[in-house]
Amino acid sequence: MRRFSRIARVTLHFVRGLCTVLFAFPRLDAHARRVRIRRWSRRLLHLLHVEIRMTGALSHPNVIVVANHVSWLDIFALHAVGPVRFIAKSEIARWPLIGRLVRGVGTLFIERARRHDTHRVNREVTAALADGDIVAVFPEGTVTDGTDVLPFKGSLLQPIVDAHGAVQPVALRYRTPAGDISFAPAYDDVTFVHSFWRICGAPALVVEIVAMPPLPAADRHRRLLAGDAERVIRAALARPAPGSEPGRRDDREAVSP
User: Fold this and answer.
1) Coil, strand, or helix at residue 38?
2) DSSP secondary structure letter of residue 256
3) CATH class belonging to 2-237
4) Nearest-CA neighbor of 84 among 30, 16, 121?
């Protein structure tokens, strides 16, 4: 019954979010949209019984956030503390309901099968950075189960090099409230429907977000910059994140309804 109750409430929340994107966003300025996105994302995590434990903070402006990728929940977790504009694979744009929603919040989509589509996306990223947005990318190019980090690709980091900005590594990890690693959010070998069903059935989850200090991008080669960010994230995931142990509240941000 818990699972079916969550599915119903979360589905209704997605419908409300879509209505906001379609009917309210055209009348709102950029700041008001960001406020709505953050509030909606925090409410989504609350409905799914996902608690945020945040260490550090996202930098701003002229920053590209790079993060390891575990789940579709990553997008909404970062929106809840950002929000940010994501670069995502084009397949997400075709997902029912969620696809229209993530398009409406300014996600930039890349056709990974088209080799030269990176040039088009990099132009859009340059424009987003100029508008003051935080842009986020998952440079692994795919998801993992959260126990490892795949090699980072640097092709989407060229705009921040050209803008003399910074790359901020962010490590993401999912746990149970007791502190054990949780595989419920992992999206590495299942369909979205299966993943959604599994997450809605989990008693409760914790998403740990560890934001490391930004790495200056000026005069760096994007491939070396990606490698540095990868090493920083690997190191962060190799040790317990502050506040992840039961009973500790070092830098914890609870999700409010």
Assistant:
1) helix
2) P
3) alpha beta
4) 30
CA 62 to chain centre: 18
**207 in Cβ contact with 68 (< 8 Å):** no
| H helix or E strand, kind and range, residue 81 | helix 73-81
How does pLDDT run across 194-232, given as a tens digit for each residue?
999 999 999 999 999 999 999 999 999 999 999 999 999
**Any long-range contacts for 237-240 (C-beta under 8 Å, 24+ apart)?**
237/68, 237/149, 237/171, 237/173
**8 CB-near residues (< 8 Å, 6+ apart):** none
Question: Using CA atoms, how far apart are residues 83 and 70, in angstroms rounded to an integer?
Answer: 18
How big is the chain, counted in residues?
257
- The mean predicted confidence, pLDDT, of the chain is 89
Phi, psi of 171 (to 5 degrees): -95, 135
The SS3 of residue 155 is: helix
Would you give the distance in Å from CA 243 to the centre of its chain?
Answer: 20
**How is the chain split into domains, by residue range?**
2-237
Classify 106 in phi/psi space as left (phi over 0), alpha (psi -120 to 50) or beta: left
pLDDT tens-place string over residues 109-166 = 988 777 788 899 999 999 999 988 999 999 998 899 888 899 999 999 999 999 999 9
Tokens of 76: 């909404």
The pLDDT assigned to 257 comes to 41
76 alpha carbon, distance to own chain's centre:
6
3-state secondary structure of 210: strand
Beta carbons of 176 and 182 less than 8 angstroms apart: yes
pTM value is 0.89
